[in-house]
UniProtKB/TrEMBL annotation:
Organism: Streptomyces fimbriatus
Key word Metal-binding present: yes
Highest taxon of the lineage: Bacteria
Protein name: inositol-phosphate phosphatase
Enzyme class: hydrolase
Catalytic activity: a myo-inositol phosphate + H2O = myo-inositol + phosphate
Cross-referenced Gene3D superfamilies: 3.40.190.80, Fructose-1,6-Bisphosphatase, subunit A, domain 1
């Protein structure tokens, strides 16, 4: 079993391309053949009308679980669908073993509707530290990757998040109201102010990619599920951005965060958004 960060770095140097290949294969075999071809019996509800799961989610997660653990013996997988079936399995994210954090189809609602706005998210972490991430949008033929300390890339091109243009409204993607508590709704209302242009988010992974590319200025999310955030948080960090909770602290993938939180193109934007979230509560 990998026991230190140096060994994780060595694993990534040897096998990052193998992880990428596994992700591409999961999409090719289990996701894309079902895109725009889903039968009614292949789509189910989980917690509500906006929380969908499909056979593509389940089968792609199973494929990735087998492939990733084979690449890194002794590692474990925390996947959205496995945790839904067994909530206690989420605790592995706080354990000693390297953990693969997997969202097989992020943006399932978009996937079900035949839109291109979905992706597969994979991150490798240990004891709350993110080491690498992959964001693959197969319908858009885009792959974004990040390795701690080595930058973020989209299809081989280095990503730089930059800073918002002075004088322009901040473009901020926010949580859907259906997924917020009353307290979080009040906090998010702080964004409805002069100089900010909030909008409801789509796929979390693609919203993080938009921030890393400088196409969006920030996110404001109200939930902690690591599979939605881990890959994107590292991508934004390695592109030059940062993240803060409403308490002014970095978001922690192992939980205990003061929500909502923001990921932003630069530190100044993160502080501004976090401040607005605090003022709105």
């Amino acid at each position: 079993m990998i026991k230190d960060s140096g060994t994780i770095d060595e694993f990534l140097a040897r096998h990052a391309s193998d992880v990428e290949e596994s992700i591409r294969e999961a999409a090719a075999q289990e996701i894309m053949p079902r895109w725009r071809r889903l039968a009614e019996h292949e789509v189910d509800l989980k917690t509500g009308p906006h929380d969908l799961v499909t056979d593509a989610d389940r089968k792609a997660e199973l494929y990735l679980t087998e492939a990733l653990v084979a690449l890194l013996p002794g590692s474990v997988v925390v996947g959205e669908e496995a945790v839904h079936a067994n909530p206690a399995s989420y605790e592995a994210i706080r354990g000693e073993a390297p953990v693969w954090i997997v969202d097989p189809v992020d943006g399932t609602r978009q996937f079900v509707h035949g839109d291109t706005g979905f992706c597969t998210l994979v991150a490798l972490a240990r004891r709350g530290v993110l080491y690498a991430s992959w964001t693959f949008a197969p319908a858009r033929h885009q792959l974004a990757t990040a390795v701690r300390g080595k930058g973020a890339y989209l299809d081989g091109e280095r990503l730089h998040s930059g800073s918002p243009e002075p004088g322009r409204d901040l473009r901020v993607a926010t949580s859907h109201p259906d997924y917020t508590t009353n307290e979080q709704k009040r906090a998010l209302l702080g964004l409805w102010t002069e100089g900010v242009a909030p909008r409801s988010c789509g796929s979390a992974g693609l919203e993080y990619l938009a921030v890393a590319r400088g196409e969006s200025d920030a996110t404001a999310f109200s939930w902690e599920a690591a599979w939605d955030h881990a890959a994107g948080l590292l991508l934004v960090e390695e592109a030059g951005g940062t993240h803060l909770t409403r308490a002014g602290e970095p978001f922690c993938i192992t939980g205990g965060n003061t929500l909502p939180f923001t990921a932003a193109r630069d530190a100044a934007t993160a502080r501004r958004v976090a401040g607005l979230l605090s003022d709105g509560s």
